[in-house]
């Protein structure tokens, strides 16, 4: 994750690293301990802003739209929202990329209920997302 962070910094990324309380808050909302790679992401980067793109996480106030816990609470109001998945990116048209805390993989999800495994780790997905 450190090399990824350096790569993003070189491109002008802005981060909001989270403290342990922020990480625990996300865990409480999800209802389970977070995988280590996601915990590292939250502590090292928190959220990411780069070239008009935004990546959900922690390190921002609860209630802020990029706070993963806040977004998760709203997304769980959809009856087909997959359990144990955290929001990473919204396309703005009802499509989301989510991180599955059990499988430690990124999935795409449509509000209509379609779920598709992207077969990517969190780190690989972040790198790919910010390359485009």
TrEMBL record:
Organism superkingdom: Bacteria
Pfam families in the record: SUKH_5
SUPFAM superfamilies: SMI1/KNR4-like
Domain Knr4/Smi1-like: 17-128
Protein name: SMI1/KNR4 family protein
């Amino acid at each position: 994750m450190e090399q990824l962070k350096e790569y993003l910094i070189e491109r002008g990324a802005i981060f909001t690293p989270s403290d342990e309380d922020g990480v625990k808050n996300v865990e409480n909302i999800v209802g389970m301990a977070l995988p280590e790679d996601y915990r590292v992401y939250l502590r090292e980067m928190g959220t990411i802003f780069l070239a008009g793109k935004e990546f959900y996480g922690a390190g921002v106030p609860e209630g802020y739209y990029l706070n993963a816990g806040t977004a998760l609470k709203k997304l769980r109001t959809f009856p087909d929202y997959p359990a144990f998945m955290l929001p990473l990116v919204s396309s703005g048209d009802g499509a989301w990329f989510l991180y599955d805390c059990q499988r430690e993989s990124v999935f795409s999800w449509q509000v209509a209920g379609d779920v598709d495994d992207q077969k990517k780790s969190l780190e690989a997905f972040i790198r790919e997302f910010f390359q485009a």
